[in-house]
Amino acid sequence: MGRKQPRELRLAARLLEPGPVVLVTTQHRARPNVMTAAWVMPLSLEPPRVALAIHPSRLTHELIGKSEYFALNLLTVEHLPAIHLCGTVSGRDLDKFARTQLHPVDALEVDAPVIEEAVAQIECGVVGRLGLGDHDLFVGDVLAVAADEELFGDRWLHLEEAPLPHHIGAEWYGAVSRLYRARIPGEEEEETETLQEESGR
Ligand SMILES: Cc1cc2nc3c(=O)[nH]c(=O)nc-3n(C[C@H](O)[C@H](O)[C@H](O)COP(=O)(O)O)c2cc1C
Question: Is the confidence at residue 197, as pLDDT, over 70?
Fold first, then answer.
């Protein structure tokens, strides 16, 4: 893997495009916390915005409400035990950073930590909050983006070799195992001729 480099804010959408789970990091009064989230999406390119749905019972909900900042951290499946633990235990009961040995480090722009082991991070300031059901939707302005220069160009490049986890349900996760390059078929062409497997490079 390469160094995590600061990137253009609009690339937040491309980082989230494959739909991986993220680790949401927050902090209030020097208390950092980390929580797993699957309900995350890009919302806008200009201004760059993302949204995540968080249940009011989560410590993360309370910390985002108080600090108005959060970061989304993307980790590869290598860290799946830590990712799952951060989604099953509350920071009210356990210091998840100490337990998982994920390391909180200073973010580029926001008053929330980011995770050293993450291959990318999206740092956000809260600009809106909507109660739409049993979860609240937090809308974040993207304030900084950084991504591993070997794994991410203007899209994820090596998802087969460095997979990001997707949540299937309960303790089950999956990953993108193959990339395809789509091309719109010409009028005389069979559709299958335009679907090429890509090495991702
Ligand atoms: C794979 C996975 C995805 C999850 N996605 C969400 C989510 O999008 N929103 C949410 O409120 N909780 C989600 N959870 C549950 C929280 O991560 C879990 O309740 C966690 O313990 C809350 O931690 P906290 O109290 O320290 O904030 C998810 C759990 C897992 C395992």
Answer: no
